Amino acid sequence: MGDSIIEIQNVDKHFGRLQALNSVSMRVERGEVMVIIGPSGSGKSTLLRCINGLEHVDRGMIIVDGIPVTHKQTDINKVRAEVGMVFQLFNLFPHLTALDNICLAQQVVRKRSRQEAEAKARNLLDKVGIPEKADSYPSQLSGGQQQRVAIARALAMDPKIMLFDEPTSALDPEMIKEVLDVMLDLAREGMTMVVVSHEMGFVRAAANRMVFMDAGQIIEEATPKELFTNPKHERTKLFLKSILHH
Amino acid sequence: MVSESKPQSREIVSDVQRWGPATGRLLAIPALERLPWWGLILIISAIFVVYSVLVSANYQETLLFLADGIVVTVQLSVLAYALALVLGLITGLGRVSKNPILYTMATLYVEVIRGVPLLVLLIYVAFVVAPVLGLRDDTLRAILGLGIGYGAYLGEVYRAGIESIPRGQMEAARSLGMTYLQAMRHVILPQAIRVILPPLGNDFIAMLKDTSLASAISVPELMLLGRMNNARTFRSFETFTLVALIYLVMTLILSAGVRWIERRTSGGR
Lengths: 246, 269
What we know:
The complex is a heterodimer of chains A (246) and B (269).
Chain A: E1 4-15, E2 18-29, E3 33-37, H1 44-51, E4 59-64, E5 67-68, H2 76-82, E6 83-86, H3 98-108, H4 114-127, H5 143-155, E7 161-165, H6 173-188, E8 192-196, H7 200-206, E9 209-214, E10 217-222, H8 224-229, H9 234-244
Parallel strand pairs in A: 3-8, 3-9, 6-7, 7-8
Antiparallel strand pairs in A: 1-2, 1-4, 4-5, 9-10
Chain B: H1 2-19, H2 30-33, H3 37-55, H4 57-95, H5 100-114, H6 118-133, H7 138-163, H8 167-175, H9 180-210, H10 222-233, H11 236-267
Helix pairs in contact in B: 3-4, 3-11, 4-5, 4-7, 4-10, 4-11, 5-7, 6-7, 7-9, 8-9, 9-11, 10-11
């Protein structure tokens, strides 16, 4: 079975009549960087949100680090504390400074002391390259800086897995690189990552495996090299063509 | 902001003294154009009240008689509003809850209370609910009645505030492992409170005026003392003019406060 940290088995998910996920199965190994691509509305984000229980599945099973997320008895908050998530629109807490954004959950969920949380937060701000922004409010930061604070906020919980939901698609082009650099560093450190993104630079540099989704189904799963050079399905070919040509 | 408004108001008082109220030249003065109309009324009524009381023994006696009522009215407003804030918060949380029991209870409370006139509610609480609870004190009964009544309105204010916060905030907090209540307390409510401070202030003003209804259940507040003074002295004009002016001065001061809060919350972020 290998050393899989995320296991998704035959997951179905409906939003009203729309079938967002259709019998999706996927496995992510420890330390692996998995990138999910696909057209909008194909279920990529939904799949990601099912992994940390932000969406409930209708059928099937998801096991994260040995804990069945989809079981009713599971304390989902325990799972979430181990799974960091980074959102497309950052979702920083606007009433708190960058530092307090990173400290809040450490203190509330991990029950760390203020000093401990703050030391960790400053460390992480250093790591994402904006130590001088500790006392800035989100509205005073650029998009790229906000997203880096959001990554630091997720990392502060010492997660075993990081989920990235289109982390660069709301950013201006010149800010994409600073966020991708942080993500690349994380990948090099051996963090398990599931990334929904069409940033091919990141994919080439960091992805171990790729999944192509369309209409709620996984169409194809392969290494980036295989997928780029030799896609097996017609839909994959068409999609890759459309995103690689510009 | 504070340092700006203080010298401005001092200037205004001196302007009023120099030219006197209601001369046509007043509006031509730049400092007064910035002065809101209610500020003018506030100043004029304050001057009128002070002047009347100073020159007339009748007004002095009336004011003396009403003084205790002012204290009771303020007490009643503050305590009833505190109760309403707590009830409102619980109700607001119930109204946004996914739990059908909490949601239904909160909705039922809001719909029932909003559908009953406040005077009827006050009398109902005073003569039906309070005896069951063993409450004897008139003021306590009025606090309970007003608190229950305004709790329903404030519940809707809280609900609107909570719903005005983008969904991503709750998701981000939950994704960090916070429970629903932790996320509410540390992420959603601090942001929602900023949004609803002005409407909360407006409801406080409305409640201050509605405390006059408590005169119907014999709470010795401003209105009841006014009626008693009228019955005692038959000086209706002096009595009720003073009663109305005292309410007006209190609400104008409060609405100045609400405007100040509005400016602060919309400006800084």
